[in-house]
């Protein structure tokens, strides 16, 4: 064999890349980085099985990835809902005031977004749906891009991106950015579908509210979180008045219809971050997260009044019903409160509402501590009131109101003897 030429092993100098090759390499590196990001986003979204946490994670991912000031999503409040809603828990836009918007599932815009595979601007949708209320809502929210969250031909939600932020950011989106956000929306649609299927296994078939065991599991987690973060939490127990008489008179099919209608009233009265469940029979339980006593009482009163004013109808039979409720409160800073304690307190307050004549709300108030015996507390006053239609709370008095007149009678309790003595009684005309 002949001698090998040294030039074969000689180290060759790298030739300088031309501009087209450098641009191609840069584009490939950028595409690889985007693919890695999408993989991490998919892993993150698919690992969350709580609906509220999933939506919050989706919003902040979109804000970071797309460099926008905020994001929001219209979503079904439940799997049997006929509306896409935008609530406080689904909204990370920088707004001056909280908003509540809804779009009927039957609206032509919903059908259009379910069939399109690209995002739109407000201007593009305005040209297609001139004068449409949903498009006007998008404009009022200062939306820079509307992204359909769809799985095949089913729309799971509508993602809204706020205004672009950051130096050098173009207010418009290029093709790569639109493809990127559509990929995120596709992952979100699958994740929402998974969470919905899981939630369906935790739902009472008749009322579409949470099952008791699942409700208590979530309540335990929320109570622990509230204790750590020092957030208020309230629990509401609701019972239908004279429900047994309805069942005995009209039959169980009519009674089931009553349960479904009351459940719908309760569900529509609470926020997405709250939770309602069927406790058993004709009893319902509601967790009001990050809600103090006064706000929780307003929610309870809204439910009570809505049931009282609702005409229940089934098989041509109409009837009017009422509910009684009991409210217990977790106060931030207290220790040792368990889920069983909250449920027991709400149940005792519910019993008090039943004992006082039904169709009212009672708030459980714990006994005062020994250090407070010299002060007049809410427990140191007993309240006696006339029957009424509307019950309201004005600390430290409990007041019963009818449309024209208020009668307030205060009975102070002697803390040593336990006897009560009558205080002032007066009428307040409205």
From TrEMBL:
Protein name stated in the entry: diguanylate cyclase
Gene3D superfamilies hit by this protein: 3.30.450.40, 3.30.70.270
Lineage: Bacteria, Pseudomonadati, Spirochaetota, Spirochaetia, Spirochaetales
Enzyme Commission identifier(s): 2.7.7.65
Gene Ontology MF term list: diguanylate cyclase activity
Pfam family, one: GGDEF
A Gene Ontology BP annotation from the UniProt entry: cell adhesion involved in single-species biofilm formation
InterPro entries reported for this sequence: Diguanylate_Cyclase (IPR050469), GAF-like_dom_sf (IPR029016), GGDEF_dom (IPR000160), Nucleotide_cyclase (IPR029787), Rev_trsase/Diguanyl_cyclase (IPR043128)
One GO location term (cellular component): plasma membrane
Natural source organism: Treponema maltophilum ATCC 51939
Coiled coil (residue ranges): none
